[in-house]
Amino acid sequence: xxxxxxxxxxxxxxxxxxxxxxxxxxxxxxxxxxxxxxxxxxxxxxxxxxxxxxxxxxxxxxxxxxxxxxxxxxxxxxxxxxxxxxxxxxxxxxxxxxxxxxxxxxxxxxxxxxxxxxxxxxxxxxxxxxxxxxxxxxxxxxxxxxxxxxxxxxxxxxxxxxxxx
Length: 165
Ligand code: ZN
Hints:
By secondary structure, this protein is α+β, with helices and mostly antiparallel strands. It is 18% helix and 27% strand.
């Protein structure tokens, strides 16, 4: 495994649409392994392939069950099946170091994706994890969280969550 350079806002690749993975070959497995190492080294909770310079529809996120030794889930060719509700939270991004902003996201999300063995899974997430998934999914379409900034909510207590950082 090796770490790869994280692309920073301003680099044109971050605005490109990633392409479907046609075949999960050795190159894809190496990419997944390198993404894991890069994410861990950067102390992130999520990372999209485009953030390390690969325009593949792949992201990873550290959102497995707490009792799992390996909490990183790999999403290959993910498709959001359904979303529900809305929440506003603070997000950050490894590609926008030192910045954060408020973003509105669904509270619940259902997503399907392949794992590295080519097996399709359907995952359901809510709250914080729904935000993480939506943030990463947007990267595959060249969207960064700061495209979606909203005003801070006035009323409730917000858990300060910072994605990726
Ligand atoms: Zn990000």
